[in-house]
Design goal:
Strand content: 35-45%
Number of helices: 1
CATH superfamily: Galactose-binding domain-like
Radius of gyration: 19 Å
Shape: globular
Distance between the termini: 26 Å
Oligomer: single chain
Largest sheet: 8 strands, antiparallel
CATH architecture: Sandwich
CATH class: Mainly Beta
Structural class: mainly beta
CATH topology: Jelly Rolls
Length: 310
Amino acid sequence: MQQRMIVHERGLERFNPLERVITYDDFDRGFNGWLDLTPNYVREDYESFDSAVDLSSWAPIQLSSAPMRFAASHGSMEGTYSLKLTTAPVAAPHTQPPADGSMGVAVKRLSRFGDPSRIQIETWYSYTPVQDRIGLGEEDIRAFGFYFDIQDSGHRYMPGVRYVNSLDGRLVKRWQYWKATEGVTFEDWNFGVENGWCKVGIDNLWYGRRYEDGSTDGYQWVPGGEQDLLYNESPDKLNWLYLRLLVDVRKREYIELQSMDRVFDLRGIQPTLADRYRSIDNLINPIFFVETDTARSVNLFLDSVVYSTE
Protein backbone atom coordinates (compact mmCIF):
# COMPACT_ATOMS: atom_id res chain seq x y z
CA MET A 1 0.00 0.00 0.00
CA GLN A 2 1.33 3.40 -0.95
CA GLN A 3 1.50 5.99 1.77
CA ARG A 4 1.50 9.70 1.12
CA MET A 5 3.72 11.93 3.20
CA ILE A 6 3.14 15.67 3.39
CA VAL A 7 5.99 17.75 4.75
CA HIS A 8 5.29 21.31 5.89
CA GLU A 9 7.80 24.03 6.58
CA ARG A 10 8.37 24.60 10.27
CA GLY A 11 7.06 28.14 9.91
CA LEU A 12 3.56 26.76 9.35
CA GLU A 13 3.50 25.41 12.90
CA ARG A 14 2.28 28.80 14.14
CA PHE A 15 -0.71 28.70 11.76
CA ASN A 16 -3.86 26.60 11.53
CA PRO A 17 -4.49 26.38 7.77
CA LEU A 18 -7.28 24.59 5.94
CA GLU A 19 -6.47 21.42 3.99
CA ARG A 20 -4.88 23.15 0.96
CA VAL A 21 -2.30 25.90 1.52
CA ILE A 22 -2.40 28.14 -1.56
CA THR A 23 0.23 30.65 -0.45
CA TYR A 24 2.59 30.87 2.52
CA ASP A 25 4.30 34.27 2.52
CA ASP A 26 7.35 34.72 4.72
CA PHE A 27 8.59 38.23 3.99
CA ASP A 28 12.20 37.30 4.68
CA ARG A 29 11.93 35.87 1.15
CA GLY A 30 10.68 39.05 -0.53
CA PHE A 31 7.36 40.65 -1.37
CA ASN A 32 5.79 37.31 -2.42
CA GLY A 33 3.41 39.05 -4.81
CA TRP A 34 2.08 41.66 -2.35
CA LEU A 35 1.95 45.19 -3.77
CA ASP A 36 0.34 48.60 -3.41
CA LEU A 37 -3.38 48.81 -4.09
CA THR A 38 -3.85 51.43 -6.83
CA PRO A 39 -6.84 52.67 -8.87
CA ASN A 40 -7.45 51.89 -12.54
CA TYR A 41 -5.34 54.26 -14.66
CA VAL A 42 -7.32 53.74 -17.87
CA ARG A 43 -8.86 57.10 -18.74
CA GLU A 44 -7.49 60.06 -20.66
CA ASP A 45 -3.99 61.06 -19.49
CA TYR A 46 -4.03 57.84 -17.43
CA GLU A 47 -6.52 59.29 -15.00
CA SER A 48 -8.74 57.03 -12.89
CA PHE A 49 -12.49 57.23 -12.25
CA ASP A 50 -14.03 60.17 -10.39
CA SER A 51 -13.78 59.77 -6.63
CA ALA A 52 -14.10 61.91 -3.52
CA VAL A 53 -11.11 59.96 -2.13
CA ASP A 54 -7.69 60.10 -3.82
CA LEU A 55 -6.95 56.39 -4.18
CA SER A 56 -3.47 57.08 -5.56
CA SER A 57 -2.28 58.84 -2.38
CA TRP A 58 -1.53 55.86 -0.15
CA ALA A 59 2.08 55.30 0.88
CA PRO A 60 3.94 52.39 -0.78
CA ILE A 61 4.40 49.14 1.10
CA GLN A 62 7.94 48.14 2.08
CA LEU A 63 10.02 45.20 3.19
CA SER A 64 11.20 46.41 6.58
CA SER A 65 13.52 45.31 9.34
CA ALA A 66 11.42 47.62 11.56
CA PRO A 67 14.12 50.17 12.48
CA MET A 68 13.18 52.09 15.61
CA ARG A 69 14.34 55.30 17.23
CA PHE A 70 16.06 53.48 20.10
CA ALA A 71 15.90 49.77 19.30
CA ALA A 72 17.89 49.92 16.03
CA SER A 73 16.40 47.16 13.84
CA HIS A 74 13.60 45.40 15.64
CA GLY A 75 13.34 42.61 13.07
CA SER A 76 10.30 40.44 12.47
CA MET A 77 8.66 37.77 14.59
CA GLU A 78 10.99 35.14 13.17
CA GLY A 79 13.70 36.54 10.93
CA THR A 80 14.59 40.04 9.83
CA TYR A 81 11.96 41.38 7.42
CA SER A 82 8.23 41.97 7.65
CA LEU A 83 5.86 43.63 5.19
CA LYS A 84 5.28 47.20 6.35
CA LEU A 85 2.14 49.20 5.56
CA THR A 86 2.48 52.85 6.51
CA THR A 87 0.64 56.18 6.22
CA ALA A 88 1.50 59.82 5.73
CA PRO A 89 1.31 62.06 8.84
CA VAL A 90 -2.15 63.38 7.96
CA ALA A 91 -5.71 62.56 9.01
CA ALA A 92 -9.22 63.89 8.63
CA PRO A 93 -11.76 63.73 11.46
CA HIS A 94 -13.16 60.21 11.72
CA THR A 95 -16.60 61.43 10.56
CA GLN A 96 -15.17 62.52 7.20
CA PRO A 97 -13.80 60.58 4.20
CA PRO A 98 -10.17 59.45 4.63
CA ALA A 99 -7.67 62.24 4.02
CA ASP A 100 -5.19 61.88 1.15
CA GLY A 101 -2.31 59.75 2.37
CA SER A 102 -3.96 58.73 5.64
CA MET A 103 -4.06 55.01 4.82
CA GLY A 104 -1.72 52.21 3.76
CA VAL A 105 -3.05 49.28 1.71
CA ALA A 106 -1.48 46.03 0.46
CA VAL A 107 -3.05 43.53 -1.98
CA LYS A 108 -2.12 40.14 -3.39
CA ARG A 109 -3.82 39.48 -6.74
CA LEU A 110 -5.08 35.89 -6.90
CA SER A 111 -7.87 33.87 -8.50
CA ARG A 112 -10.22 31.07 -7.51
CA PHE A 113 -8.48 27.67 -7.60
CA GLY A 114 -9.89 24.21 -6.96
CA ASP A 115 -13.53 25.31 -6.49
CA PRO A 116 -13.24 25.86 -2.71
CA SER A 117 -16.16 25.97 -0.32
CA ARG A 118 -14.21 27.79 2.41
CA ILE A 119 -11.28 30.20 2.28
CA GLN A 120 -9.14 31.49 5.12
CA ILE A 121 -6.47 34.11 5.78
CA GLU A 122 -4.06 34.01 8.73
CA THR A 123 -1.32 36.40 9.75
CA TRP A 124 0.99 37.37 12.59
CA TYR A 125 1.12 41.17 12.78
CA SER A 126 2.05 44.16 14.89
CA TYR A 127 1.10 47.85 14.83
CA THR A 128 2.73 51.04 16.09
CA PRO A 129 3.12 54.75 15.25
CA VAL A 130 6.39 56.27 14.14
CA GLN A 131 8.29 57.30 17.28
CA ASP A 132 8.70 60.95 16.30
CA ARG A 133 7.46 62.41 19.60
CA ILE A 134 7.17 61.53 23.27
CA GLY A 135 4.23 59.60 24.63
CA LEU A 136 2.67 56.17 24.26
CA GLY A 137 1.20 56.78 20.80
CA GLU A 138 -1.44 54.06 20.90
CA GLU A 139 -4.24 56.60 20.48
CA ASP A 140 -2.80 57.78 17.13
CA ILE A 141 -3.74 54.55 15.32
CA ARG A 142 -7.33 54.78 14.10
CA ALA A 143 -7.88 51.37 12.58
CA PHE A 144 -6.44 48.40 10.72
CA GLY A 145 -7.88 45.28 9.19
CA PHE A 146 -8.24 42.78 6.41
CA TYR A 147 -10.72 41.85 3.67
CA PHE A 148 -11.16 39.56 0.68
CA ASP A 149 -12.22 41.04 -2.68
CA ILE A 150 -14.23 38.22 -4.28
CA GLN A 151 -16.17 37.88 -7.52
CA ASP A 152 -17.96 34.68 -8.52
CA SER A 153 -20.49 33.96 -11.27
CA GLY A 154 -23.19 35.90 -9.48
CA HIS A 155 -21.78 38.68 -7.32
CA ARG A 156 -18.83 40.77 -6.22
CA TYR A 157 -18.51 41.00 -2.45
CA MET A 158 -15.99 41.89 0.25
CA PRO A 159 -16.00 39.98 3.54
CA GLY A 160 -13.62 41.64 5.95
CA VAL A 161 -12.92 42.91 9.46
CA ARG A 162 -11.75 46.21 10.90
CA TYR A 163 -10.30 46.85 14.35
CA VAL A 164 -11.33 50.33 15.50
CA ASN A 165 -8.50 51.26 17.83
CA SER A 166 -8.99 54.99 18.41
CA LEU A 167 -11.26 57.86 17.33
CA ASP A 168 -10.06 61.43 17.80
CA GLY A 169 -7.69 60.31 20.55
CA ARG A 170 -10.27 58.16 22.38
CA LEU A 171 -9.42 54.46 22.57
CA VAL A 172 -12.26 52.25 21.32
CA LYS A 173 -10.66 48.80 20.77
CA ARG A 174 -13.59 47.09 19.08
CA TRP A 175 -14.03 44.89 15.99
CA GLN A 176 -16.31 45.56 13.03
CA TYR A 177 -17.22 43.37 10.06
CA TRP A 178 -17.79 44.54 6.49
CA LYS A 179 -21.46 44.91 5.55
CA ALA A 180 -23.20 47.98 4.15
CA THR A 181 -26.13 49.39 6.07
CA GLU A 182 -29.47 48.67 4.41
CA GLY A 183 -30.91 51.54 2.38
CA VAL A 184 -27.65 53.37 1.65
CA THR A 185 -27.87 55.06 -1.76
CA PHE A 186 -25.23 54.99 -4.49
CA GLU A 187 -24.66 58.75 -4.10
CA ASP A 188 -24.29 58.52 -0.33
CA TRP A 189 -21.84 55.63 -0.70
CA ASN A 190 -19.67 57.65 -3.10
CA PHE A 191 -19.87 60.88 -1.05
CA GLY A 192 -22.09 62.60 -3.61
CA VAL A 193 -20.12 61.68 -6.76
CA GLU A 194 -22.89 60.84 -9.25
CA ASN A 195 -20.76 58.71 -11.58
CA GLY A 196 -18.65 57.05 -8.89
CA TRP A 197 -17.07 53.69 -9.65
CA CYS A 198 -17.95 51.77 -6.49
CA LYS A 199 -21.29 50.10 -5.94
CA VAL A 200 -22.72 49.95 -2.43
CA GLY A 201 -20.75 47.38 -0.45
CA ILE A 202 -17.57 47.69 -2.53
CA ASP A 203 -14.40 49.26 -1.06
CA ASN A 204 -15.87 49.86 2.38
CA LEU A 205 -12.50 51.02 3.71
CA TRP A 206 -12.87 54.26 1.70
CA TYR A 207 -16.56 54.71 0.96
CA GLY A 208 -19.75 55.06 2.96
CA ARG A 209 -20.56 57.82 5.41
CA ARG A 210 -18.87 57.75 8.83
CA TYR A 211 -20.50 58.70 12.13
CA GLU A 212 -19.48 60.10 15.49
CA ASP A 213 -19.72 56.81 17.43
CA GLY A 214 -17.40 55.03 14.97
CA SER A 215 -20.14 53.29 13.02
CA THR A 216 -20.22 53.77 9.24
CA ASP A 217 -22.37 52.92 6.24
CA GLY A 218 -19.85 50.18 5.39
CA TYR A 219 -19.22 48.40 8.72
CA GLN A 220 -21.27 46.77 11.44
CA TRP A 221 -20.07 46.09 15.00
CA VAL A 222 -19.10 42.50 15.78
CA PRO A 223 -21.38 41.28 18.63
CA GLY A 224 -19.28 41.24 21.79
CA GLY A 225 -16.39 42.53 19.69
CA GLU A 226 -14.60 44.56 22.36
CA GLN A 227 -10.98 43.41 22.69
CA ASP A 228 -8.02 45.09 24.36
CA LEU A 229 -5.16 44.05 22.07
CA LEU A 230 -1.58 43.98 23.30
CA TYR A 231 0.16 47.20 22.28
CA ASN A 232 3.08 47.42 24.78
CA GLU A 233 4.42 50.50 26.57
CA SER A 234 6.45 52.31 23.90
CA PRO A 235 6.19 52.75 20.11
CA ASP A 236 9.54 51.01 19.56
CA LYS A 237 8.39 47.70 21.10
CA LEU A 238 6.57 45.28 18.79
CA ASN A 239 4.54 42.35 20.06
CA TRP A 240 3.25 39.93 17.41
CA LEU A 241 -0.46 39.11 17.33
CA TYR A 242 -2.43 36.38 15.52
CA LEU A 243 -5.41 37.03 13.22
CA ARG A 244 -7.58 34.56 11.27
CA LEU A 245 -10.70 35.10 9.13
CA LEU A 246 -12.71 32.15 7.75
CA VAL A 247 -15.31 32.65 4.99
CA ASP A 248 -17.83 30.30 3.33
CA VAL A 249 -17.68 31.16 -0.39
CA ARG A 250 -20.45 28.71 -1.32
CA LYS A 251 -22.96 30.41 0.98
CA ARG A 252 -21.21 33.80 0.61
CA GLU A 253 -21.19 34.11 4.41
CA TYR A 254 -18.79 34.76 7.25
CA ILE A 255 -17.89 31.83 9.51
CA GLU A 256 -15.60 33.19 12.19
CA LEU A 257 -12.95 35.71 13.15
CA GLN A 258 -10.13 34.69 15.47
CA SER A 259 -8.04 37.38 17.15
CA MET A 260 -5.36 35.89 19.38
CA ASP A 261 -7.23 33.28 21.49
CA ARG A 262 -10.69 34.81 21.05
CA VAL A 263 -13.01 33.42 18.39
CA PHE A 264 -15.99 35.50 17.25
CA ASP A 265 -18.81 33.46 15.69
CA LEU A 266 -20.06 35.26 12.56
CA ARG A 267 -22.11 32.41 11.05
CA GLY A 268 -25.24 33.47 9.20
CA ILE A 269 -23.91 36.97 8.40
CA GLN A 270 -23.46 37.91 4.76
CA PRO A 271 -21.35 40.77 3.42
CA THR A 272 -23.13 43.00 0.94
CA LEU A 273 -23.61 41.26 -2.42
CA ALA A 274 -23.08 43.66 -5.35
CA ASP A 275 -23.60 43.00 -9.04
CA ARG A 276 -20.61 41.57 -10.91
CA TYR A 277 -17.99 43.90 -12.41
CA ARG A 278 -16.64 43.41 -15.91
CA SER A 279 -13.63 41.10 -16.52
CA ILE A 280 -12.92 39.99 -12.92
CA ASP A 281 -14.83 36.71 -12.56
CA ASN A 282 -13.06 34.24 -10.21
CA LEU A 283 -11.24 37.07 -8.41
CA ILE A 284 -10.07 36.35 -4.85
CA ASN A 285 -7.74 39.10 -3.61
CA PRO A 286 -6.59 39.27 0.04
CA ILE A 287 -6.03 42.86 1.23
CA PHE A 288 -4.66 44.44 4.45
CA PHE A 289 -4.97 48.10 5.47
CA VAL A 290 -4.06 50.58 8.20
CA GLU A 291 -5.36 54.10 8.94
CA THR A 292 -3.96 56.91 11.08
CA ASP A 293 -6.12 59.00 13.42
CA THR A 294 -3.82 62.04 13.77
CA ALA A 295 -1.10 63.96 11.94
CA ARG A 296 1.32 61.11 12.62
CA SER A 297 2.48 58.20 10.46
CA VAL A 298 1.44 54.77 11.73
CA ASN A 299 2.57 51.31 10.68
CA LEU A 300 1.14 47.82 10.32
CA PHE A 301 3.79 45.08 10.15
CA LEU A 302 2.96 41.63 8.73
CA ASP A 303 5.47 38.97 9.72
CA SER A 304 3.94 36.26 7.53
CA VAL A 305 0.61 35.41 5.86
CA VAL A 306 -1.07 32.10 4.96
CA TYR A 307 -3.99 31.78 2.54
CA SER A 308 -5.65 28.36 2.52
CA THR A 309 -8.79 26.69 1.17
CA GLU A 310 -10.88 23.53 1.32
